[in-house]
Amino acid sequence: MYKELTRALTPELTYLYFTVTSRCNAFCDFCWNWENVADAGKLYKEGQAIKRKELSLEEIEKLTLNLPKMLLVDLYGGEPFVREDLKEIIDLFAINCNTKYFSIPTNAYYTERIEKTLTHALEKYPQSFFRMAISIDGPEKIHNRVRKLKDGYQNAMRTVNMIAGLREKYPNISMSLNSVYNRMTQEAMPAFIEDMMELKLFDSISLGIVRGETYDPTLKEVSVDNYFALKKRIEGYKLLSNQPFSPMQKVMEERTKTIIERAIRGKNSQREFKCYGAKKFTLLDDQGEVFACEHLLEKSLGNIRDHNYNLQAVIDGAKAQQMRKAIKNKECDCIWDCAINTSNVFDPLGYPRLAVKTLGKMVKQIGK
Ligand code: SF4
Fold first, then answer.
1. pLDDT tens-digit map of 103-129
2. Torsion angle of alpha carbons 140, 143, 148, 150, nearest 10°?
3. Is the CATH code 3.20.20.70 the one for domain 16-367?
4. Ligand 1 within 6 A of 209 CB?
5. Domain assignments of the chain as residue spans, ordered by start
């Protein structure tokens, strides 16, 4: 644990967001990556030709062999489990990069494939932790409609139950419910969250507000007050908390929520968090392009294919240096919760405050 914490404080790249594919069996009107998903062929079906020049497993092997240790890796898409070799991709990161924390957001459609992949990974890498983020956006009708996914809800719930079974057996997995609050989901969301809570299957609930350049911009027409009221209610729920650093994580989430709320309500004239984009974390897409984050997809920092699959060489390059300068000068801003959370983790200046708040939360929990 000590080694991991000190690693978080080094100036090196520590967190990789990797869009393993842009192919997706769904097509959500609120997706931040919808242009690439459309480019890969909307509503991907098994056996459909791969339209984008996706990094092959051999190329990903070269990437991982060149990477420094990568503490945290997000494997996302598109739908990551569309790739039948996701199991092997996990192997490459676990073996070559000693990755300790995997996060995999999924629409949980491919139950059998997910089970096979997770059973393999949990068994083989007990020293790594796997956070499964299950995207469900409301009751059956709404979920299937916003994702344009027939049987999407049914399959996701099948997967949720399957993962709950794995969690009984393995200590290194958690399951989070990830829902997106938007015009189409907002009305049903409070009752839906209550229903999900009653199942007692999730370790955490992440309710994000629609963000970025969405396919359907009208989805951003939401009641901000209702959103934050619901967020507040979720904070009070007692969850399973099968996650490392649980009380500390709650404190971080609360801080992130405050920053996002102030930004949405226009209470800050400037970004209120230190962003580590293109420094401690970066985004690699399915075709090898490197970006600071998911909001700056028009500003590529370079392609690993042009740098012998050496991601660090891209991060050390002139474009990334320029980008870091712009980020430091707060020339960009966003409400991407992952970027704000990583700021909480990587910014040592915030640690004293974090420690005091975490202690307070632990004392409160003991007193209950
Ligand atoms: S502040 Fe937001 S938009 Fe700017 S680099 Fe960080 S994550 Fe990206």
1. 999 999 999 999 999 999 999 999 999
2. -30
3. yes
4. no
5. 16-367
